[in-house]
Write a structure and sequence with these properties.
The complex is a heterodimer of chains A (75) and B (120). Chain A is an alpha+beta fold. Chain A is 36% helix and 27% strand. With 120 residues, chain B is an alpha/beta fold. Chain B is globular and about 35 Å long. Chains A and B meet through helix 2, helix 3 and strand 3 of A and strand 6 and helix 4 of B.
Chain lengths: 75, 120
């Protein structure tokens, strides 16, 4: 599952720093970290929205029970 | 029916100073992220109005349709989405949350008691 989420994030943020951690080992509580130049100048809300967009499918079908997001700009 | 729920949710977002849509209630929190958001708001002294989304799945559906935010919890200050648990924690830690509360609610914010409203 971690690989699948990481794949979706790499697709959405090609070449950027992406990390996914299964927080509980149960395959449904995740911490994702993304560092991308696309975040520069965006509010935290806008940054998290981009991550949510990338993970829309697993969020909608309930695969992700709990998601923690950490975003960082490139600069 | 769903229209009624939507109107109630919208009324809370627009009408409350600080609205926290969460899983459970402040007395009985049912989710780690809801707990994190509540605690960050408490540290900032926010006058929280909490809404439990669990009693009816339509509350969550209507909320996410209105806000465009897919997950719970969701925090609003004077009708504007501030974010979920991660953002609220980050803004609290940097002092920006208190700054936003002061700007939107005035320097004397936080004198109101925490309360719970029910959508039904």
């Amino acid at each position: 599952m971690t690989d699948q989420l990481e794949g979706l994030l790499r697709e959405a943020f090609p070449g950027d720093e992406v990390a996914v951690e299964d927080r509980t080992g149960g395959g449904d509580h995740f911490q994702v970290t993304v560092a991308s130049a696309r975040f520069d100048g965006l509010s935290l809300i806008e940054q998290h929205r981009l991550v949510y967009d990338a993970l829309a499918a697993p969020l909608a079908d309930g695969t992700i029970h709990e998601l923690r997001i950490k975003t960082r700009g490139a600069s | 029916m769903s229209d009624e729920i939507r109107d109630q949710v919208k009324g809370i977002i627009d009408g409350e100073d600080v609205a926290l849509f969460m899983k459970g209630t402040p007395q009985f929190v049912m989710c780690g992220n809801s707990h994190r958001a509540l605690e960050a708001l408490r540290r900032a002294g926010a006058p929280v109005t909490a809404v439990d989304v669990l009693p009816d799945p339509r509350i969550r559906e209507e909320l996410s349709t209105l806000s465009g935010w897919p997950t719970i919890p969701q925090v609003f200050v004077r009708g504007e989405l501030v974010g979920g648990a991660d953002i609220v924690e980050e803004l609290e830690a940097s002092g920006e949350l208190e700054q936003t509360l002061r700007e939107k609610l005035g320097d004397g914010y936080g004198k109101t008691e925490e309360r719970v409203v029910t959508v039904a």
